Amino acid sequence: MKVMILNIDYDTKMADLIINNQQILYMLDRFNIPLGFKDATIEELATTNNVDKDALLAITQLIINEESHAEICTRNSLKDLLRFLDNSHQSFRDKIASLKLIIDKFSEDISGKYEIILKSFYNEYIEDIKKHFLFEEENVFPYIKTFFCDECQVENSCVKNISDFEGNHSDTELKLKDLKNILIKYLPASIKSRYRNKILYCLYDLEPDMNLHAEVENKIVIPLVKHLEKGESC
Amino acid sequence: MLDCIIIIERSSIIRKGLASIFAKNKTAHKICAYDSFDAITQSSCTCEHRVIIANPTNLYESVAKTKKAYNIHADTHFIALVYSYIKKDIINSFDETIYIDDSPSSIVNKIEACSKEKTNTIEHPLSKREIEILKELIGGRTNKEAADKLCLSVHTVVTHRKNIMEKTGIKSLSGLAVYAIVNNIMDIQEIK
């Protein structure tokens, strides 16, 4: 449980934060910031790795204090925020592909109705996620791009306003939790397979990663785009 | 130890062979063997905690229909005894499969695993009404359709739905479908 709100600013050393928080690790990965950065501060890391320092600070604060400080970000941060979201998708696709391999192996160890029902649940979950990613990549991201790229245009997009896109995540998050519950509570104890735990390890890795993605969208990117839509200068 | 194992198999050699394996391993208090399901209805076996081992060719179309036709309790575990080619979807409707070349110990293990499972699944927390609603929702009905069919208000269905999710910890319909199958509330064919 996080009870202490840490004061995090541009001078905070990243190494002090990462040691107890795996979400920071996900964030660095999305910005292609390599480890081994000794005592570098958030601002130094941003400069060395060509990342917008406001975007890096805002996401770090969101992770550590679970509070949004979207107002730190400006129009100049959007490009890197979008890069963060886009790279997250790629990483999720990889993670889901390896999860699928483990689920297939697990299916070999179980049989009959459990195999069928679990596979159909998982396949539906993957389809949902793919659809969700595709919707963002084809509609939401191009729309956000128009705010920092003058040549970028969106045609025939179903997103005319960032509010069209709010709250779009919930279903895939629910299903991930459901899968955990099914594996932990409901598949009978007689199903013995070492892959049962392995699937859970993967889900424990995927869940905070996906939550971070959703939080960055809901608490940083959407509020920022809303400001820009109103024509307010950020 | 199980209360009762019922074997449904035409070949008397196989019936007796299986019965002697279970007797030797003390797998159940009582072992009944018949050559068809028709014999069950006239039999005196009224044990509650039981499994049925049946050659799939003896089924009345499917496991679900056989249970209905012969008044067999929905929670009864069905184990397929396979020694000829049987369609995969038929085999899948059983809870477990034993093969003619399985060793006696692996047969006993499978039966015992099934019986343990059963004690786990007896106490699922949903009420009768909640189970009825769960079945309608998984079957693809909307809240309104389920309400009409069960003569309830939509509001009541929504309240039950919330309770089902809270009790099970499962929020998506497809997750609840898995729950229903695992707890023997529904048959896999009813969902497809």
Summary, kept brief:
The complex is a heterodimer of chains A (234) and B (192). Chain A is an all-alpha fold and 234 residues long. In chain A, 65% of the residues lie in helices and 0% in strands.
Structure write-up:
The complex is a heterodimer of chains A (234) and B (192). Chain A has helices at residues 14-18, 22-30, 42-48, 53-65, 78-109, 112-145, 170-186, 194-229. By secondary structure, chain A is mainly alpha-helical. Chain A folds into 2 domains: 14-72, no CATH class; 81-229. Chain A is globular. With 192 residues, chain B is α/β, with parallel strands linked by helices. Chain B folds into 2 domains: 2-122, Rossmann fold, CATH 3.40.50; 128-191, Arc Repressor Mutant, subunit A. Chain B has 10 helices and 5 strands. Chain B has helices at residues 12-25, 38-42, 63-69, 88-92, 104-122, 128-138, 143-149, 154-168, 173-182, 188-191; strands at 2-8, 28-34, 50-54, 77-82, 96-99. In chain B, strands 2-1-3-4-5 form a 5-stranded parallel β-sheet, with helices on one face. In chain B, α3 (63-69) links the parallel β3 (50-54) and β4 (77-82). In chain B, α6 crosses α8 (154-168), α6 packs across α9 and α7 packs across α8 (154-168). The longest helix of chain B is centred in the middle third of the chain and has 19 residues, at 104-122. The chains are: A mainly alpha (234), B alpha/beta (192). The interface between A and B is medium-sized, with 26 and 28 residues.
Chain-wise SSE layout:
The complex is a heterodimer of chains A (234) and B (192).
Chain A: H1 14-18, H2 22-30, H3 42-48, H4 53-65, H5 78-109, H6 112-145, H7 170-186, H8 194-229
Helix pairs in contact in A: 4-8, 5-6, 5-8, 6-7, 7-8
Chain B: E1 2-8, H1 12-25, E2 28-34, H2 38-42, E3 50-54, H3 63-69, E4 77-82, H4 88-92, E5 96-99, H5 104-122, H6 128-138, H7 143-149, H8 154-168, H9 173-182, H10 188-191
Parallel strand pairs in B: 1-2, 1-3, 3-4, 4-5
Helix pairs in contact in B: 6-8, 6-9, 7-8
